[in-house]
Structure prediction request, 174 residues.
Amino acid sequence: MYAPLEATYVRKVERLRNGERPRVLDLFAGCGGLSLGLHAAGFDIAAAVENDPAAARSHGTNFHEAAPEHLRPRDVLTPPDAFSRELGLGPAAHAFDVIVGGPPCQAFARVGRSKLREIHDHPQAFLHDPRARLFREWLRYVEACQPLAVLMENVPDVLNHGCPAGTKARGLSP
Ligand SMILES: C[S@@+](CC[C@H](N)C(=O)[O-])C[C@H]1O[C@@H](n2cnc3c(N)ncnc32)[C@H](O)[C@@H]1O
Prediction:
């Protein structure tokens, strides 16, 4: 059960008013490109989710002085509360002020779509690539963590997955 929305926001705004740095959760963090920019801008990189072992290790080394719990690769399918408690950050709804991330873009980007067509020898292979649905897990984290701000980075063609540019996206329903 998530904490009541309003009380959670008020508590987070109070923290920032008291001069504390906004705590960022970086989902699909890679080795930390987005994290680096936010860190330079004064944000606290509180945690990251990245399933590639080498990238997760780099992120943990870059932003958490190689603390073992931050070096581990994790899948975005990890439940948000289990994730934040495992890092000693308490319930997910209390742990983060900002959620950022760049979900995989292979099924959206023109070059990625063309590669997927080639690999699977099918004109619509990109519509069936499971990575196209991972942004939903990003949204699940937003719902659970109740951040004050979000930032999602992706390619422009994320807006026309399966239909001409400028028209409504399809192929992403559950
Ligand atoms: C577009 S890159 C992110 C780049 C990153 N934001 C940066 O600034 O460097 C997407 C990342 O998502 C990771 N990824 C893909 N599937 C994942 C999953 N199921 N769980 C966690 N991370 C995943 C990939 O390993 C890759 O590093």
